[in-house]
């Protein structure tokens, strides 16, 4: 059986990545993709990589898309769009995976503070599920609305969770020193994202505060059973894809076998790979795939845990995780459409 | 039905690319992969991108590989290796696709001049088939040995062929100005391929002669029905993957409808995409895929044809084309294992 | 003695490059730099690389700049700005170097056709000098207005000129296959220039016609003593800086000693380096410097000259050449401020 | 007055960088440059960027170099070379700046443990000066042997020093999360440094221990007046040049005005630029220059100091600092030869 899928806002990187990955999925058909600005343009004219597979698909006006006829709609839009359309779609029985932030923060006040807009549907927010399968797998299966995690939050939470759940670190002093490829900023014409600016360069950004901080802190607090102290420092690295999270946490139980802790926590997870002791993962080892890899370290002479995490920000950090959530929602194998190996070199 | 496959020399980029692509193939199992130097090492330890899919596969000594038990062996080796082992394998009924140059040049003397070694089996060379499916599809089906084309030769031949077959250009003055990503040089520790040397840089190389020149000239001469005059200028561009061929040929029949000529020539080809008039293809539109794209131009004020060709040097220019050839040899759908969309961005 | 310099439009790459290079110049002081949009901003706040040297310099409104008090004004602006202000400045005795195209094409009709605006001062255009010192050195010394050549035109003209002046090639069939780093497109927020678009990619562009074509053709025609046939194909390569021109011309006098021809033509030129026979220059060998390097080739088995040219598009292709022109205009050593070695790696 | 300089081992990146920078220096002449492997090769044939300035300079055998006739010799060699030649040169009155590690660690046992060789001249080591001008300026002036700091140690020490000297942080829990461009690994033919491996990638390395750890710890301990606890995590980022150090330290005096502390500490320093509050420096803002920039932060909701430091690993992290040390040793202006602005873009 094949179900119909809709994509709202398909002109960005998460949109084209959804199309790339869904083309490998055995059970879905992309029925409609919307773009107000580019209505009428064929997707394969904007993204020639899609030629031969999506030759019949063109962007349509949101109103013309009849999204309510779809079994599921992905929102690959700026923040604020999904929550405006959610009530109508849910009423029609359409399920939603929002790749933006509308359904990530459980506290509407927190959402408003960081995203500078009131939340349009706090009641739906309360019912929605945060789409991190490694934490919320069962809830996702039954969810009508899934808030797909941000790219940094996926890596940082999966990196810290085993430590917090086991209660072996001082949760007041967590540091997440993170590095992201440039596609994480989206397909936006901004000077600082130009090749001639971002290439052969490296810099921290968002040093006065980044929207992924409250999202990460929310997830860590749930795992820790109380608020955590977190420094989150994002940096821009001259790569197209990839997130690298270097995490530091002071151990309160220095005798813990961290390697065993992580291997046990993620045993059976199809998309979390705990690497052997001593490993230093690299981002290309997950490029274009939904796999996330973790290496666990204890720097010599310290009482710190150092956790290294890599993911592809557009796959496990966005479109791939969205499809993983869809697979759970429809009872398909969790890996459906997501089993391609990383592209190396 | 699943057949057993062997790979000789799997520690380079074409080897790991074969493993990546074969993992998506419905009808094959990699039975053995050889490396004298790295025997005993797990492939997933050398290439962590293969973890979770090839955890049981390790490099073995060539002698231990029992390659003759395989239905097909890919040689992803330096030049000279395949021809040394071909006779024994063919005698055992094993079919061969050589990704090196041993079975590309039909004239053993030409091989010896460019590769500085005598050909080990001229009789087998005579029986072997040059593995360019768009030219030799039927012969490939029945071949015991396929010489898989070089990366530049694939792009340049497919770019020029329609012009030569139609007899509409002056074949004495063909120019192929080509640009390649750095992976085309292989996974070799050479100073000029270092990131700090090749990045933020651009240069021609091989200006005194390149081994792909005779291979290209051989194919063009067959299409033209006689020798051609060819300038082939390879350049190194700071990208990992991708070949860009900018081809110039003087038209002798200026009224020719070039666009129609190309569309007709490649109609039905699963991996050649003739783009609409006015297009400028980019290498990322084929990244990690077996598709090759062509755009046809007539520069204003000239009697020249200008043909733009892009391919991924490791896929259509190497491992993907090898699998396409295997599919033909075993009567499988030509696109089996090769239907993933390009990775963009 | 120190003279006062003005820069109009200093927020782009040629503007910041002028500031970088002028800081090393012994005889000038930047008195004013204008930007309507960023008036009030310190240049070192926009470009932190300028901190500690230009801490007192801020962008001012054009009207406030009192440019007529400067001995020379550089226009690092979009096309059309310099010609609108030229008459007033020239009347005040201020000399002008325009880094845009207003004073490059001698034929106002040609300018209008390619730049879609009428020329504001054809009389000044007639008096202006095309600022290619290797061709117009004496005229530049006395010029009031210099039209600084484009980046591609500098490389292509200096590459072809010796052949044309000597009359040894068929001028109807010239091919310039050119590759440029991304900074050549300017500091403009455009999607196709984003790191995530331009990195790990290669493509031709401007395939329907590029504004540098008439500029190149104008210079070549002057050297050849009549119109030339020229194909000019620009490509974008994932490097910040650098132009690589691969030039092809059919020899009509195949016995010509091309190496000697070039060495003689450019003997004594401070910024043209004719490399030894067999060389393949790379763009990094001129990075951040005003040097242009040329290698001369005769591909085997052909009657073609193949000329390889490298320059830094922002230096010899823009700001450096502008300073070289200024040095000539003021009787200073031609290399003043331009003697730093290229940055490698 | 011009003095004669010798360079031992000039075929790596620090060697060519010394030549680039020394070409701008008013008071030195490179008399000899040695390379056993490349004796007889002109430096400009190996590095065409040096053409026109060093056309007469060729690598010579160490014995033929008559280094003892030079006033100063730079060692741009692997570890172990300088200490083997130091005694003879010092005896001859020649002064030494070693860009390798032979004279960095004051404890010979520590040197032996990390560099796997005994120290050849502990007595000279005891007299040598660690060449960090911002700490040891006066001692450097009189030094016969200067151990030039490593690239990471320069950035990390200058970043932490004001905090340690002021005693405002808990020195048991210092974290240095560092990122380096690929040139930091040197001009060595290693697979992991290839463009096709290091490009579009990001990874930690040296996770089991890095030789710069004891060097950093030594300097921090001196400033702190006792041993410090330090985690040092180096990462490789796909840039040619640049080091980015993100430093974390727990404040014990949360009321400290960190910005004022840093501005005061580095007031008057020609090559340390304390940026305004809220800044996020980028590596390109120091590319090819000897400037190091620092930004001081207090992440919200924490009692941490977060210090961001950028430098060019080949300049302030190697060759530039070596020249700065030479300037001190000979009583020249500290900025002689080092006043070029960073190259941006």
Briefly characterize the structure.
Chain A has 11 helices and 14 strands.
Explain what you see.
The structure is a homotetramer of 345-residue chains. With 345 residues, the first copy, chain A, is an alpha/beta fold. Chain A has 2 domains: 125 residues, NAD(P)-binding Rossmann-like Domain (Rossmann fold, 3-Layer(aba) Sandwich); 163 residues, Dihydrodipicolinate Reductase, domain 2 (2-Layer Sandwich), CATH 3.30.360.10. Chain A has a 7-stranded parallel β-sheet with strand order 3-2-1-4-5-7-6, sandwiched between helices. Chain A is globular. Chains B and C meet through strand 8, strand 9, strand 10, strand 11 and strand 14 of B and strand 8, strand 9, strand 10, strand 11 and strand 14 of C.
Biggest beta sheet attributes of chain A? 7 strands, parallel
Strand content of chain A: 15-25%
Broad CATH class of the largest domain in chain A? Alpha Beta
Helix content of chain A: 25-40%
Q: Helical element count of chain A?
A: 11
Number of E strands of chain A: 14
* Spans where pLDDT lies below 50 across 5 or more residues of chain A: none
Architecture of the largest domain in chain A, according to CATH?
2-Layer Sandwich
Shape of chain A: globular
Q: What oligomerization state is this entry in? A: homotetramer
Most extensive chain contact?
A-D, 49 and 49 residues
- Superfamily at the CATH H level of the largest domain in chain A? Dihydrodipicolinate Reductase, domain 2
């Amino acid at each position: 059986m094949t179900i119909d899928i809709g994509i709202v806002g398909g002109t960005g990187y998460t949109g084209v990545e959804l199309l790339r990955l869904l083309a490998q999925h055995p059970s879905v058909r992309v029925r409609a993709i919307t773009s107000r600005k580019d209505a009428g343009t064929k997707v394969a004219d904007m993204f020639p990589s899609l030629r031969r597979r999506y030759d019949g698909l063109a962007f349509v006006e949101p109103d013309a898309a009849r999204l309510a006829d779809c079994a599921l709609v992905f929102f690959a839009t700026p923040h604020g769009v999904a929550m405006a359309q959610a009530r109508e779609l849910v009423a029609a029985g359409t399920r939603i995976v929002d790749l933006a932030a509308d359904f990530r923060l459980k506290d509407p006040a927190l959402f408003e503070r960081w995203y500078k807009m009131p939340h349009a549907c706090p009641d739906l927010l309360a019912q929605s599920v945060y789409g991190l399968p490694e934490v919320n797998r069962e809830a996702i299966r039954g969810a009508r609305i899934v808030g797909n995690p941000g790219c940094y939050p996926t890596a940082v939470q999966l990196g810290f969770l085993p430590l917090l759940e086991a209660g072996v670190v001082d949760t007041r002093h967590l540091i997440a020193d993170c590095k992201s490829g440039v596609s994480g900023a989206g397909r936006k014409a901004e000077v600082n994202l130009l090749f001639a600016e971002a290439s052969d360069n490296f810099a921290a950004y968002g040093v006065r505060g980044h929207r992924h901080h409250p999202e990460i802190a929310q997830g860590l607090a749930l795992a820790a059973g109380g608020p955590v102290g977190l420094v989150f420092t994002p940096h821009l690295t001259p790569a197209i894809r990839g997130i690298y999270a270097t995490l530091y946490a002071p151990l309160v139980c220095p005798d813990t076998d961290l390697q065993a802790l992580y291997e046990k926590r993620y045993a059976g997870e199809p998309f979390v790979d705990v690497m052997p002791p001593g490993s230093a993962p690299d981002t290309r080892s997950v490029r274009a795939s939904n796999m996330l890899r973790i290496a666990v370290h204890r720097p010599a002479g310290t009482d710190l845990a150092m956790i290294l995490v890599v993911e592809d920000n557009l796959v496990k950090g966005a479109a791939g995780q969205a499809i993983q959530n869809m697979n759970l929602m429809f009872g398909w194998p969790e890996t459906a459409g997501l089993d391609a190996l990383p592209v190396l070199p």
